Amino acid sequence: MPTQPTLAARVLSPIRTVIQRILPEFAGELLGSPEIREKIVLAADATLINEFPAARALPGELRRRIIARILDSILGEPDTRSLTRATPTKAALEALPLSKEELAQLEISAPGNSVRGFLIDGHGDNEDEVASAVKDLLGEKWQITRLDPHLNCYRATNPNVILSVPEAWSLSHQLDETKAIENAEPDIEWIPAPPEIGGETPDFRSTVRSSAGADSHLSCSTQISWHLNLINAPAAWAFSKQSGKPAHGKGVTIGQLDTGITYHAELPINNQHILLNKGRNLYDPQHPVVGNKPLDPMIQGKFLNPGHGTSTISILTGHKKLSGSARDAKIIPFRINPSVVHFEPVRIAEGIRHAHEAGCDVITMSMGGPPSKTKYLDQVVARAAEDGVIICCAAGNQIGSNNVTPLVVWPAALDQVIAVAGCNCQEEIWSGSSRGPEVNITAPAQSIWRAAAVTGSLTPANPPPDGVIRGDGTSFATPTVAGLAACWLAHHGGRKALTKHYGAASYVPQAFAKLLETVAYRRPPGWNTKLMGPGILDAKKLLEAPLPAKGVLGWKKKKHAWAGSFVGGVFQLVNSRASVRSGPPSPRARAGATSGASPAGLHGELAYLLFDRPVLAKLLNPELELEASDSPAPTTRRSGASASTRTTAVNARAHEECLEDAALLLRSCASRQLTDALS
């Protein structure tokens, strides 16, 4: 991980910057008034979480308390302009009344953590030209690191620079325009936006729901292994044994990318089943407690998911009360994040690359986030798939209500990845599951029995904790499918045997995907195949099916309706508005022709913002259908018309109102190039 500025700089500099920017809005007000001070604090807080998404993970009370103290220091100085030359110090941070727990939260979620640098795809294969382009635009102190010796992908960092997301996107668009660079984007630590700034709050029930809590569960979920019975796993294992084939994934290695694991009675951490010594901590390898081991230090905090990795790996390898979907497979865990929504594409790509290089036949990952404009993640996934690795990723959990587009997250949305959606024990779609045309298969995700992690279980204990509880999430559907992928490989002799059968390793994951698409499912009445894949996984059909012919294999091109058709439609909507008002589209309306940004670059930023701010989809979508949703198209806040009415009678005024509302939001979170293009 690149070196960062001091904690004081990462906390205080962004807050000082936003305060100084908004203070002119309160010119003429009585700045000594407590009421006015409170308004300034709230305005600064909204600006902070708009532009520095890492700060969203901090408790609002903590953010506003720090902002208030810094505001007091600013208003107490006679010349506020002098503050632009002030450098935050450790002493200034320590002067705040912060507990050890709050300092630990700030270390992870300081506003200045939001942008780590830039991700870059180079033109051709000339690292020196890429470095020169970056240094010419950003300065000599920026460092360029090649992310993979075989790929023309880079990371640009400067530990002394703290950028907001709009500033970083603006610089990315300028990097795009250089000859040496094909694509550039900010390396953002993404945290979901809260509702007050146009986002929706994710449902984290999967990390807190317990069998003894107040949450209710369907009566059909009381039996601990109900999810395996629903997908016919016991019958599949029996079929392998009767056929004289290895069962339960024996001989197959699975890579698990998650928050790390803890010791638990359900987890055979013995370097025979769970290979702790082969795993790595890719998130914070210098952690003072766990070091480079793939263990979960169980850090508590907003948007953090302590124990998540323990729960998901228990779905694969539970041996006591639980029964893992591939309990005889070998599993290599990797700690890549403390949260399922702290999304950084480089970290996910690094996890996939390390799992691939460690010899994993299957990779399971129960996390994801927005699409990446640069190609590093895509190319790492493609290379692993080309080498015969089956990659299973969670489609995602609903962000907000069912009236907001339930986006399938990346990397599950990639062509070479098995995207897993969720159902319940009644064979119904789980209401919290993401859905869309990218889904490959559905598996049980609601009220799933899994191991409950206990804080402090970082060494073997006698006896180890053994609690199991129920939880919700496509996080649990994914290792179920990955475990059955391992069982399928084992049944057919493993990845090498299948590679020999087909003549190339690349056909192995394609064959698995083809069986899911055509044979290995059960389709309940009324199943929505456009959004949830062909049906619910049937493991027995998967293992009984003959291997598909080589001639029918190939990756199916996934349709990303919201990020492709819809993003392009937004610019079409702007152009049509310009045509209505003044004839042919202006240069600015043609995707920022005068702003120094390419249409592809602006599409990348807008796709990120649509993922981050679902309300933008509502405001920019008066007549465009979001195909990834099975609910009525969302209405604007000024119109109560039905979807059918809107699609047949949207007038120019409705276009204007939607775009005006969206422009207000975009001005607070988008680069100047994008706001120019859509203004």
From TrEMBL:
Keyword Ribonucleoprotein: no
Region (Disordered): 578-597, 626-648
A molecular function (GO) term: serine-type endopeptidase activity
InterPro entries from the UniProt entry: Peptidase_S8/S53_dom, Peptidase_S8/S53_dom_sf, Peptidase_S8_Ser-AS, Peptidase_S8_subtilisin-like, Peptidase_S8_subtilisin-rel
Residues annotated as the enzyme's active site: D258 (charge relay system), H308 (charge relay system), S475 (charge relay system)
Pfam family, one: Peptidase_S8
Record key words, sorted: Hydrolase, Protease, Serine protease
SUPFAM superfamilies attached to this UniProt entry: Subtilisin-like
Keyword Hydrolase: yes
Biased composition annotated in UniProt, kind: Polar residues: 632-648
Sequence similarity: Belongs to the peptidase S8 family.
Protein name: S8/S53 family peptidase
Organism listed in the record: Phragmitibacter flavus
